[in-house]
Amino acid sequence: MRELSQAFALAVPHAEALRIRDDVAFFQAVLAKRAPGDTRPEEDIEHAVRQIISRAVAPEEVIDIFAAAGLQKPDISILSEEFLAEVRGMPQRNLAVELLEKLLEGELATRRRKNVVQARSFAQMLEQTIRRYQNRAIEAAQVIEELIGLAKEMREAHARGEVLELSEDELAFYDALETNDSAVKVLGDETLRTIAQELVQTVRANVTIDWTLRENVRAQPRVLVKHILRKYGYPPDKQEKATETVLEQAALLSADWAAA
Fold it and tell me: Does 242 lie in the same domain as 208?
């Protein structure tokens, strides 16, 4: 019941959470009334249950959760060193894990709208860590450190654009080029940056908001991408996969491009 209550409080005001709030209230009330050894008057227990539910469905519940966890500032970035230090010092280990998981998922949702490769990679890492924790393969203290490490990796990945002198869109295409592959690395950062920049310019100029819906229109960007990869000596056996990832990334950004 405790786990259900915590999950419910973290999920609101999501529509699915609000849909089951009466069920949650019922279970909380029943279990609270039947708690062994509880000598409180029944009306006190019912009042406490009502308070729990009313707080859970309040729109400011996220702030309440931060306050309950001992964090002073609810409106802070997940990638902030100050915030991560506060979470690491929380005495409620399970709550710290839930907070980090929820905030990392929020960060991933943002990245899914911008960078396919980054979002996919970090989502896999988060899923693996949480699964190990749920399977009791690692303790709460260890998972907190791993999640904090993941948050820092996200921050560093976001800052790579400045180091490489690439815009956000260019960095997304740069990541789509499988730049960690040893066969691709031999091209060097300068060439890979150039490929990413040319891909953005070329693909952006040749896609419309509905280009993914029309087979005859999809063919042109594919040809252009393959031409650019061949032009700069991208490994032939890696070209097909890179082309697919680049086009997937282009589909993600095309709506923003069309609106710009």
Answer: yes
